[in-house]
Specification:
Bound molecules: oxa(dethia)-CoA
Structural class: alpha/beta
Order of helices and strands: EEHHEHEHEHEHEEEHEHEHHHEE
Largest sheet: 5 strands, mixed
Helix content: 25-40%
Distance between the termini: 12 Å
């Protein structure tokens, strides 16, 4: 199976480093040199994750020449659902008029889109379903603490949608590698709001509904796991590093991306980077970057593309595919 259509969306407003300089003790220079981020797209208060997912889905379906009525399954990968339940996928199903489609959410944080492709792809490969919509969609700025300079400079809002369909032999998704290490769960979390710490005045006062992160520990984990996961996906596809035309990494930090590319021996012109304009959009970062690279004509039919992500959980994942459109 492979990707038959792509769509993307981003928050309506731009939050620049200069804006952040007025909010916390930081500087454009620090943010750019430590992360590579210049700006991030943020949503307005009235915009929810399913709104971004909807925009991306409509474009992805049109790109594939399909409508919501053609969908068999919708998977939304997100850590910022509109609400705990119903799932964001169900909200989207109604809005798309996808009356035949089953719908559920996947939560694998920034690795979500890779997990979603893997799960959705199984339904197509097994011929259970023909048409599966996989979306990475996030409004991380809704759970970002704008008094914490160590995290608030990083995140943005967006969504990327991929329509999975059967494709020819040797095309489309060639291999997938997924992994998790739950012992690192505390390094990156939203502590409250679930059954362990239900929402209360105390949890709100203690700012426990925001993202809490041990940045340098996540950084070290990311550099190691990105290279290893990408290598494993390349090997599982029966390919070598030299066969890779493009790497589309999770956009968390420019230094993490550069270090992973160096480990893989890939020159800069083979690495898709859009973090400068979008920041870290968690599960949306890879499909948005892929969409941009395909739309601009950089990624073309026949190219070998490796997607690789890491995230909270801890989780990681990589997919090798031959672009088939
Ligand atoms: O999708 C997965 C999500 N998370 C990640 O991928 C995050 C991975 N980690 C990172 O990207 C980096 O660790 C950060 C960008 C978060 C931080 O960069 P770092 O180079 O690891 O900095 P650090 O945390 O070691 O902090 C260095 C200094 C500290 O000051 P002192 O203690 O040396 O005086 C921080 O307080 O930089 C300070 N600092 C800042 N200074 C200005 C931290 N954030 C900021 C800031 N502006 N925004």
């Amino acid at each position: 199976m492979g990707i038959a259509g792509l769509g993307a969306a981003a928050g309506e407003d731009l939050l620049t480093n200069n804006d952040l300089e007025k909010m916390v003790d930081t500087s454009d220079e620090w943010i750019k040199t430590r992360t590579g981020i210049g700006a991030r797209h943020i949503t307005r208060p009235e915009t929810a994750t399913s709104d971004l997912a909807y925009q991306a889905a409509v474009e992805g379906l049109a790109d594939a020449g399909l409508t919501g009525a053609d969908l068999d399954l919708i998977i939304v990968c997100t850590v910022t659902p509109d609400m705990p339940f119903p799932s964001t996928a169900c909200l989207l199903q109604a809005r798309l008029g996808a009356t035949r489609a089953a719908a559920f959410d996947i939560e694998a944080a920034c690795s979500g889109f890779i997990y979603g492709l893997a799960v959705g792809g199984q339904f197509v490969a097994s011929r259970t379903y023909d048409t599966v919509l996989v979306i990475g969609a996030e409004t991380l700025t809704k759970i970002t603490d704008y008094t914490d300079r160590a995290t608030c400079v990083l995140f943005g809002d967006g969504a990327g949608a991929a329509v999975l369909r059967p494709v020819g032999e040797g095309e489309g998704i060639l291999s997938t590698v997924l992994g998790a290490d739950g012992s690192g769960g505390e390094l990156l979390m939203q502590p409250a709001g679930g059954s362990r710490l239900p929402a209360s005045h105390e949890t709100v006062d203690k700012r426990l509904h925001y993202i809490h992160m041990s940045g340098s520990d996540v950084f070290k984990f990311a550099v190691k796991v990105m290279g290893e996961a990408a290598d494993a996906a390349i090997e599982r596809a029966g390919l070598s590093r030299e066969d890779v035309d493009f790497l589309v990494p999770h956009q968390a930090n420019r230094r993490i991306i550069d270090a992973a590319a160096r480990r893989l021996g890939l020159p800069a012109d083979k690495v898709i980077v859009n973090i400068g304009e979008f920041g870290n959009m968690s599960s949306a970062s890879i499909p948005v970057a892929l969409h941009e690279a395909v739309r601009s004509g950089r990624i073309k039919r026949g190219d070998v593309v490796v997607l690789v992500a890491f995230g909270a959980g801890l989780t990681w994942g990589s997919t090798a595919l031959r672009w088939c459109r």
